Sequence to fold (325 residues):
Amino acid sequence: MKPYTHRVNQLGIVLFAAFFLGLLFGSFLNVCISRLPQRESIVHPRSRCPECEEPIRWYDNIPLLSWALLRGRCRDCHTTIPWRYPLVELAMGLWLLSVARLFWDAMHLDTTIRANSIPLPTEAQIIGYSLSLVGVAILGFLLIGLMVMDWQTMILPDSFTLGGIAIALFLVCTQALFLGPNEDEVVLTKHHIQLTSPGGVVDRGNLFFTGPESLIFGRIAAVCGAALLLLLIRWLYKAVRHRDGMGLGDVKLLAMIAAFLGFWPAILALFLGTFAAAVYGVILLARGRAGATSRLAFGSFLSIGGLVSALCGNHLINMYIALLR
Ligand SMILES: [Zn+2]
Fold:
């Protein structure tokens, strides 16, 4: 057992590295946000100032730092660089930092587990949990991007939504590879491991399928369920209001959240997103800034719901269950 302070120092290094890596991903995400809705390539040409078209020098492209040193202006033509650039970088940095923290806690469960005499997680559980955290990291990248793109352009590119579903299902299949066929104790459907002792509380529904089958089919069912639910809401809205309330992009977005997190966390994201959109809509109406027919970037709110659900969904669901007791 390493001394406590030593471990704290290590944690600091891990979190800093994760934050820095997040900044770099955020910088790349900014390129995606600028180009994908315009259907431009994200690799070619090199980043240019949209105003004077001067290529951006490498030292003016350092996340956060360059924006601060340039005081938010282009070095050549002094056009304002939007706040969006440093904010997206910062958001991605904080996102990877949070995921790294979750990963760190999971890797150092041993002391907690010994204190509570719960059996140590199996190798499959550790790999499964690590893979689901990789999924959460990728989901954050996609959702932050979709949130900004929908807000600015009302476009949710398929490369992010459908591409995200493909990545998520690939991760689930990889998780399933590490499951033994009789490992019913591993209930991986809710994007975290439920540690149940052998012969303890087991989700009997899983016995219908083997572990890998239930994992893969369950997730595909979650994707279809989430998509169908939103299609139904979309259809009902159209029947009542005689106009489109949400686009198909929103449907794909919720299906993507379900692909990464499972059905119930996606429903939580839908609930949180709808609530946030309603609050925002009421504020706009009260200020006379919008009418009953104004369009709202619902995908942005759905993305925020997805981000909250991914990081603290389990806490929120547990709090809700505790309230019911
Ligand atoms: Zn310029």
Remarks:
- The first helix runs from residue 4 to 35.
- Residues 184-193, 195-207 have pLDDT under 50 and may be disordered.
- The pocket of zinc ion is lined by residues 49, 51-52, 54, 74, 76-77, 79 (CB under 6 Å).
- The chain has ten helices and no strands.
